[in-house]
Design brief:
Layout (H helix, E strand, L loop, with lengths): L5 E6 L3 H11 L4 E7 L12 E3 L4 H6 L5 E4 L6 H13 L7 E2 L4 E2 L4 E2 L4 E2 L4 E2 L4 E2 L4 E2 L4 E2 L4 E2 L4 E2 L4 E2 L4 E2 L4 E2 L4 E2 L4 E2 L3 E3 L4 E2 L7 E4 L4 E2 L5
Parallel strand pairs: 1-2, 1-4, 2-3, 5-8, 6-9, 7-10, 8-11, 9-12, 10-13, 11-14, 12-15, 13-16, 14-17, 15-18, 16-19, 17-20, 18-21, 20-22
Antiparallel strand pairs: 22-23
Bound molecules: acetyl coenzyme *A.
């Protein structure tokens, strides 16, 4: 008997939600049930907006979808965490999506809500905590762990035994040397190269990366 497709709803109908939907549509075994969004009532996509965020639980109970993925972007890191935790606590399952054009070693440990875009490579014993989102082309070397709700922009490279804290956003092309630990809520600018561990939240830019002073 053929497997039923994974009927998945996406939280957020904006650009990130649309990107997630497109990957699902093009991957065997997945089906986009629709979107939940507090602002949009319709989308350019074939699937409907099923309701607002407050209506997710009732839609799940009514069987409108089986799993969730989160399409809330890096400008809203605290909200990403809040929505994920609330819906997990309500017993609504989050999917894990690994694009077929990614390489994920069999030893990797992926928690619920993880999303892995095309071109990513995860080597031996990588751990992605809940709700981690990898944009295309991220390379994560052996024994590295990425903390819950963090997002890695396209082309981020983490060497071996790195620890990335929760709610971090690593900007496009960031490189992190082996064995470093990054605190929670670290952000990095495009092309940053991290050569020391970072104990404090904040934005870091440059080669080697330095703190970006907060605006006056
Ligand atoms: C799929 C996707 O598209 S995912 C998103 C991918 N996009 C990214 O990763 C972008 C990451 N963001 C950046 O790099 C941004 O420049 C940030 C967040 C680091 C800083 O943004 P802002 O706070 O707006 O800083 P602003 O642009 O005003 O620059 C402040 C200073 O930092 C410098 N600066 C900004 N970004 C960088 C950078 N990546 N590397 C080095 N210096 C930088 C600026 O030149 C400026 O220096 P100055 O004061 O000497 O003139």
């Amino acid at each position: 008997m053929p497997h039923l497709p994974r009927r998945t709803a996406i939280l957020g109908a904006g650009a990130m939600g649309q990107q997630i939907a497109q990957h699902l549509r093009q991957t065997d075994g997945w089906l986009v049930a629709g979107f939940f969004d507090d602002w949009a009532t319709e989308t350019i996509s074939p699937e409907p907006v099923l309701g607002t965020m407050a209506e997710v639980e009732a839609a799940y109970a009514a069987g409108q979808f089986k799993e969730l993925l989160l399409g809330i972007g890096y400008q809203h890191m605290a909200y990403r965490q809040q929505v994920f935790n609330e819906l997990m606590a309500a017993g609504i399952p989050f999917a894990q999506f690994v694009h077929p054009a990614a390489y994920v070693d069999a030893s990797a440990v992926l928690q619920p809500g993880v999303f892995i875009s095309p071109g990513c490579v995860l080597d031996l014993n990588v751990q992605l905590e809940p709700n981690v989102f990898l944009y295309p082309g991220c390379i994560i070397a052996h024994d590295t762990r990425v903390g819950a709700h963090s997002m890695l922009a396209p082309g981020v490279r983490l060497a071996g035994r790195v620890r990335v804290g929760e709610r971090c956003f690593l900007g496009i092309g960031t490189t992190v040397m082996d064995g470093l630990t990054l605190a929670a809520e670290v952000r990095t600018g495009a092309g940053a190269v991290l050569v020391r561990s970072l104990d404090e939240p904040g934005t870091y830019v440059g080669v080697p990366a330095r703190p970006l002073p907060p605006p006056l």
